Every structure is written in C-alpha cells, then in structure tokens.
Amino acid sequence: MSTRYPALIDTFGRVASDLRISLTDRCQLRCTYCMPAEGLAWIPRPELLGDDEIVRLGRIFVESGVASVRLTGGEPTIYPGLPEVIGRLSALSPRPEISLTTNGIALARTAPALVTAGLDRINVSLDTLVRSRFAALTRRDRLADVLDGLATAQAAGLAPIKINSVLNRDVNLDEVPELLAWALEQGYQLRFIEHMPLDADHSWSRDDMVTAEEMLELVQAHFEVRPLGHGGAHGQAPAEEFEVLDGPGAADWASRPGRLGIIASVTRPFCRECDRLRLTADGQLRTCLFAQQETDLRGPLRAGAGDDELAAIIRTAVRGKQAGHEINSLDFVQPARSMSAIGG
Ligand code: SAM
Ligand code: SF4
Question: What's the whole-number average pLDDT of the chain?
C-alpha cells in the first residue's frame, strides 16, 4: 500500500520502519542497571506528550512508512491512556503492528484490555526467577506480579511472548540454564541482552559486561542450538536467533523446538541494518539509542505545524542518521539521557 509521505530513508540507504514510542520516563521499579534507588529527575509533566500528540505523530510516522510501533518507557503500563493510545494507533491506515515492552507487573490487571484495544505482541523484562534476587535487582519485591502478568498475557492470546534478560556477571549469569529451560517450558522466547552503557549512574564497564560470545558458550554447555541468523525469518531484528533443539528440563524437544535470541548491541552491533527510530516521552526524535542529537517534534507540534511540515522535519532528521554507534571507539560518549528516559 502506498503511503501519504515518502519513505524515511537515510544516506546509507536504510529505511526506517520501526518506531519506539516512550510513553513516560517514570517506573515503579528501580533496576540497578537502569535507575538509581531514588529514581531520576523526571521530565516535567507539561513537557510530556499527551494522547492526541502521540497519536498524531504516530500517524505521521505510519504515513511515512513505519510499519511497527512499540510502546515503551520508563514503564508504559503506568501511562493512564495506554489502552486508548493502542486503540487509536491500531486504527491507523495502513495498520501498524503494535507491541509493548514492559516490566510485566501490571499485566495481570491490564493484559486483556490491551489485547482488546489492539495490542499484538509483548516483550516482558525479567532477569531472574529467584525472588530475593529480583527484589535486590529491581529494588522491589514484585517477582510474583511479573509471573502472574505473564500468565495473564499468555491466556489473553499474546504470542509469541518474548522475555528480555540483561545478563550481569555478579547478579544472574549463573541462572542462564534455568532461565532458558523455564522460558522454553512456558512457551516464551527468551532473549539475553548485553548490558549497554546507558545506566543512569554511568557505572557500565566493558570489563564486567557479559558478552554474546560468553552467553552462547554458557547456553551451549547445556543446550543444543542451531543458529538462524539475525531476526530469524524476518532478518531485520537486532537479535541473533537460535533454534533450541535439545536440553534439560521437561520440554518435549522433538515436537516443540524453542527459540532463543541474543542481542549483542555492544560486541556485535547491528547498525548497518538498523530500521529503528525512537520518540521520547517529551517529543524528541532519536535516530539511534546512542545518538548525541535529538530532533524536537514537540515544539513545532505545539506551535501549530501542519502534518506536511512535521513529516518534513522527521524526514530530514532520518536522512541525518549516523552510520552506527561509537560504543567500540575511544571517542564514545554516553548519551545524556539514560535508557529509561530514551525508551528502550
Ligand atoms: N520498563 C520496561 C521494561 O523494563 O521492559 C520498558 C523500558 S526498559 C528501559 C526496556 C528494556 O531496556 C528492558 O528490557 C531493560 O532490561 C533494558 N535495559 C535497561 N537498561 C539497560 C542497559 N543499561 N543495558 C541493556 N538493557 C537495558
Ligand atoms: Fe523500570 Fe524498565 Fe528501567 Fe527496570 S528497566 S527500572 S522496569 S524502566
């Protein structure tokens, strides 16, 4: 189907088709690798986009060729208008795929309504199955709520459910086999993620980071896996995917081979194929997680810019997308915003 505006193409020929919208920078949890215990200096409320602004910008992106919209944060389930925003985005033409990245603690209450509104897929972040570890890692004793939320999301028909696990050497590295066996048994697709230099307290260290290579070695010590390449059948996702053919646990391997993903943004960056854009909760467009520059969309939007003008601002910003992030260069400078304020 042709779109109202030309496709969003950068000077390296990449076409932007995936938009992550951060609905809020706030969160109920305080994951140690993401936020300090006291939280962050939240974006002042008047600067946050409201439902109409989010949906209008979302429409202009979709009319420029964006085919998938992921709602994130902070924690998107604390955004009061979440079902309405999902409903209105899913009514756009052409209809984008709508997904959500969440810590899962509100899903037991909200998942059925989100599915009814039009939600297609979810990713739930869960780094450990040990209650005391979860409480220490997120600084909140809410593991049971996440597990309840996952069960409700599955019963509500969301599939495939993906689980995001950031691996940390001193925290959960020893849980790799248990996390994978559990995810396979539940029918969830687990993705192990390299810790990225996006912490609020700038505590990331390359020496401490668990690399994709190390993750895979640990997995292969317990499971038989077959590489499927980046994004599996879709070929565009940042995860390197694997089919799990055999391993411990009660899963019936022969009839239900499972999937595993490894996201190695630091050691195996996927910038050459990157099709992503990010809109922060205060209306700033970022063409890369690690970008130093943002393009203000909220200012022109609130100053009365028309759709054509906003579409042109977005197109110009995308044309300027950098070739790749510089994490592995000596010149790398961590962006001023941390993960929760960008929208992971
Ligand atoms: N609150 C939601 C959640 O936790 O899923 C959505 C936002 S959160 C910022 C999105 C994802 O970013 C989560 O999977 C989280 O584990 C991941 N994340 C946060 N800080 C990170 C970091 N420094 N390195 C790698 N992943 C990180
Ligand atoms: Fe909240 Fe997600 Fe950051 Fe954890 S990773 S503190 S759940 S925003």
Answer: 92
User: Which positions ≥6 away from 162 have C-beta within 8 Å?
Assistant: 121, 122, 123, 124, 188, 189, 190, 191, 261
Domain limits, the chain? 18-342
Backbone angles phi, psi at 161, to 5 degrees: -90, 125
From CA 325, how far away is CA 333, in angstroms rounded?
10
Instruction: Say whether 304 sits in a helix, a strand or coil.
Output: coil
166 lines ligand 1 (CB under 6 A): yes
Give the residue, out of 28, 30, 31, 101, with the most ligand 2 atoms within 8 A of its beta carbon, to mutate for a pocket test. 31
Residue 340 in contact with ligand 2 by CB distance below 6 A: yes
Residue 75 CA: nearest ligand 2 atom is 8
Would you state the structure tokens that stand for residue 91, as one six-digit string? 């009514």
The verdict on domain 18-342 having CATH code 3.20.20.70 is yes
For the chain, percent of residues with pLDDT exceeding 90 = 78
Under a CB-based contact definition with an 8 Å cutoff, are residues 210 and 172 in contact?
Answer: no
> Measured in angstroms, how far is the CA atom of residue 290 from the centroid of ligand 2?
18
Helix axes 51-62, 307-319, angle to 10 degrees: 60
Q: Report pLDDT digits (tens) over 77-89.
A: 999 999 999 999 9
Radius of gyration (C-alpha) of the chain in whole angstroms = 19
pTM score = 0.95
- Whether cis (ω within 30° of 0) applies to the bond prior to 335 is no
